[in-house]
TrEMBL record:
Belongs to the short-chain dehydrogenases/reductases (SDR) family. This is 3-hydroxybutyrate dehydrogenase. Gene3D superfamilies: NAD(P)-binding Rossmann-like Domain. Its EC number is 1.1.1.30. SUPFAM superfamilies: NAD(P)-binding Rossmann-fold domains.
């Protein structure tokens, strides 16, 4: 329970990797604010379970990560109702796969807004509270695609490279305030985000479903396995420790060796 007394916001935590982050933080006693879209009853069940596990408050905030005013209000609410935020994990994300000459402009705008700009807005609102406490942990979920590219993912690759660059600049700015800022870059994790891109990848690359699974998704990792949400969350938890304070400005891969290959 090394996070007892700390509060955390995890954006996009109604599913996949974000949900694993929230559970990992709660298991260490943090008061967690979850966020994202989904079934209202399922979200309430998740919120209640997080509170039970942590022994602290847990809140759900429905902020839409395309809306800067809602992001700022979510951070302010966390401050008012949970204290902090001491930890912000920027994780909300979407993906779209299409050739550049057919890439929908609204998908480009949404991917940049949700995957990149939301991170800027959340951090901008949270840093003053962290500075006041002289302690903070900012963890931005980037991707293997912040380091290497894949075809037909121009917006996502651009957004994730942006997250990695922004995190480096941010780390320098907050370094003397007890605040660290790092990226975690997962390889493929089996979540709705990955499952939903299979039909478009089949179409864009002329592949069968089986070929996408084996030759694109699993083949990316030299381990030939999907990464699990829990493996990603374990690194986030480590970054929240006091003895991880020298790790800042880093882009840390949890990718089964993908970006080493
Ligand atoms: P997911 O689809 O399971 O979860 C995405 C979350 O973001 C959900 O909670 C969803 O409700 C939320 N979200 C989407 N749009 C939102 C909006 N406008 N406002 C608020 N919340 C919104 O996906 P995931 O795979 O768990 O992805 C989480 C993060 O991990 C993303 O940033 C993604 O780019 C990154 N990532 C995923 C993988 C992978 O293979 N799954 C690999 C590398 C990086």
């Amino acid at each position: 329970m090394f996070l007892k007394g700390k509060s955390a916001i995890v954006t996009g935590s109604t599913s996949g990797i974000g949900l694993a982050y929230a559970k990992a933080l709660a298991a260490e006693g943090a008061a967690v604010m979850i966020n994202g879209f989904g079934d209202t009853d399922a979200i309430e069940t998740e919120r209640a379970e997080l509170a039970a596990v942590s022994g602290a408050k847990a809140l759900y905030d429905p902020a839409d990560m395309t809306k800067p005013d809602q992001i700022a209000a979510m951070v302010a609410r966390c401050h008012d109702e949970l204290g902090g935020p001491d930890i912000v994990i920027n994780n909300a994300g979407i993906q779209h796969v299409a050739p550049i000459d057919e890439f929908p402009i609204d998908k480009w705008d949404a991917i940049i807004a949700i995957n990149l700009s939301s991170t800027f807005h959340a951090v901008r609102a949270a840093v003053p509270h962290m500075k006041a406490k002289k302690w903070g942990r900012i963890i931005n979920t980037a991707s293997a695609h912040s380091l290497v590219a894949s075809p037909n993912k121009t917006a996502y690759v651009a957004a994730k490279h942006g997250v990695a660059g922004m995190t480096k600049a941010l780390a320098l700015e907050v370094a003397t305030h007890g605040i660290t800022a790092n990226c975690i870059s997962p390889g493929y994790v089996w979540t709705p985000l990955v499952e939903n891109q299979i039909p478009d990848t089949m179409k864009a690359r002329g592949l069968t479903r089986e070929q996408v699974m084996n030759d694109v998704l699993l083949a990316a990792q030299p381990t030939k396995e999907f990464v699990t949400p829990e493996q990603v969350a374990a690194l986030a938890l480590f970054l929240c420790r006091d003895d991880a304070k020298a790790i800042t400005g880093a882009n840390l891969s949890v990718d089964g060796g993908w970006t080493a290959a």
